[in-house]
User: What shape does this take?
Amino acid sequence: YFGKKTAFLAQHFEKVEGCDISKTAVQKAWENSKGIAFFECDFEKKDLLLPKKYNSIFAVEVIEHLFDTQQFLQNCRNALNKGGVLFITTPNVINISNRLRFLLGNDIFLSGDKAHIRFFNPKTIREEIEKSGFKIVHFEGYNGRKLTKKIPMPLRFCEGIVVVAEKE
Assistant: This one.
């Protein structure tokens, strides 16, 4: 469902805009979420110029699909006001489910998703974000599957990673 996460954010923030690299995705998101502005944008593009700055950027399950993560993060920094916040989520490649799949000799791709270009664990996503000049202010794991959702576990075993970072 295109625009679903943006529509959720719009319930909690005064003004929300959504963007995607795909013109089709932008059109579908606009159709599904009337009243929310969506625009086409490639955050991996060198010398990306946006018409304005933002207080926050939410990149939910995006970074693992990108070829140039540092360019993406630099563009996020450039698009944020001073003190602006970047919120990123990404799957944790070393989560407990993937470890079990690997031990059983199976494919470790989450849900069979072969569109992931990059694979992060808590250490590598932290390093990538800090390398781009952000200050990490919150870092945690999450579980979303029915089986693991309510089971407390160490960050390295969690299904996904949440990072909140600030532009100083």
Observations:
- The first strand starts at residue 17 and ends at 20.
